[in-house]
Amino acid sequence: MGGGGEKETIRKYIQDLREKIHYHNYRYYVLNEPEISDAEYDRHFQELEELERTYPDLITADSPTQRVGAKPLEEFGTYEHSIPMLSLNSVTAEEEVRDFDDRVRRMLGGEEIEYVVEPKIDGLAMELIYEDGSFVVGSTRGDGYTGEDITQNLKTIKTIPLRIFAVEGVNAPLSLLEVRGEVFMPLSRFKELNKELGEKGEKMFANPRNAAAGSVRQLDPRVTASRPLDFFAYGVGRTEGKEFSTQWEVLDYLRRIGFKVNPLIRRFETIEKVITYHKEVEEKRDDLDYEIDGVVVKVNSIAQQNTLGTISRSPRWALAYKFPAQEEFTVVNDILVQVGRTGALTPVAVLEPVQIAGVTVSRATLHNEDELRKKDVRIGDTVVVERAGDVIPEVVSVIKSKRTGVEQEFRMPEICPVCGADVLKEGPIVRCIGISCSAQLKERIKHFASLRALNIEGLGEKLIEQLVDRKLVSDAADLFFLTKHDLLKLERMGEKLAQNILDAIEKSKETTFARLLHALGIRHVGEHTASLLADNFNDMDELRNARYEDLIRVPEIGPEVAKSILLFFEQESTKELLAKLERAGVRYEKKAREVEEGVERILAGKTFVFTGRISMPREDAKRMVERLGGKVASSVSKKTDYVVAGEEAGSKLEQAKKLGVKIIDEAEFKEMVKEA
Fold it and tell me: In the annotation, is 120 catalytic?
């Protein structure tokens, strides 16, 4: 080959060819307005493939040829969202929407408000990370804070650009752009897929959402690529290089840089117009090629969104305005009890199969014992069933006029129907507290091994499912007795991966008292409460022998939490598990009462927000604040006392400046807590 100049010319030609293909993908898949024939497009693509075969060192991750270029994974990794992906509060009544508007206007002190309203797609929320215009990471919403890294699968979706390019007057791409949106499967393509699966004798999907979920979570991206998935962008997370003033501006920007944005999105100045729009969209829903279950209402102004802030895991500035559920009549043939992953015992009605919104429904939830008694549902009753939110079937009411006298009342069991452990009634919920209950086992082990518990790297959900299904573990402690021979029995398991997992399990034996308590999954004992217990009891023996009076003396431990802890340690399965953990060699630091009484709560009532890169792990900084009485928030508001700004601090720092919140660096933060 010639000199460097010739190579640079080839590199530039390849890059121009990629940009051309990206542009025509956008015209075809996003705008549905192709400018060239399929044959011409194929010629461009084949030329690029040939050039990349000749010059493999010039292949880039965002090349159109790399949409299906990755090898199958052993399992998915995790990805932590820089800004939490919050869930939305849902309502179905007009009055609830007006109440939302009243609250927003009251909190904003009479400011003028504009709403952006968009169809609520029944799909899966995703986050796409772009650095300097290239797609680098794609993840699921997960629990809102941490999702699964499914980058290689999302790359196969044609309406997700691998490269953001200048289009319709937009300048160079941002250095960082986090795009949020919904992956879904069009209804027409879903029907085609199910027909193909049925003809092959394979299991068909119940609905488009299940089909989309099953498709994006394939370990082999070639399977995902074969599925007809689509994507609508609806917002952004963190950005660097551009500030947005409104949600409408965000959507316009996303559309202009190459993303597919729902064409039915509108702006309104009054809540009455929002309600009218909701009715119009409901009338159109059967004509759409994708499933929707309502509309999402958002305050348009970003500044007003920041003023309104969030409550728990939901923003105060947005609302899901759902459509009324569809209903049908059928007969209750039986009532069974299911034990969920959190131990909740749920009565389930076994129904005479009935079609609701195109789906055959044969079971419906009765929610809990109180709800069952309130509705007076009996075996043999004729009932009204709806798909609540168009997803989960539930029994709404009983047609008592159709009773014949042979209907049978149902009683909830007094012990867990799966493991025989005690059940605890907490308000309307009856819950199994058995730590080794097989109905909860997968979820308990997943929690036990999670990042903020014992942090067993490589022990993902798929692997845990195999371990439980093959009866290689019957409780979390069995993880420490696994052998390489055991692991090699599992699918997609090689020598190196097996050894890495065993090493990670061994490493997790050295932990802290707080982490171990959190890992046990005691009802009402999350990460923060586990830290409080670890600060007030020397070790597991002292805690398990604690009396009710000892527990409620701990700050923030109330009667309900204390009773839950006492009942947990009374169970034989708990005693067996703790003994097994001790035999396995699990050790933890004993660090209670290290802090003097007078210094313990020096940050009481103070709220901190961390932004940018700091030297200490973010979780350690958070624990430090919480142990000293403060709390850590994920977003900046007028109630924030301190913003700790590290390197490359972004929008949170700017928001702190606008609101006049005190800004300190990491050194000042360390000095603040040094005395404690």
Answer: yes
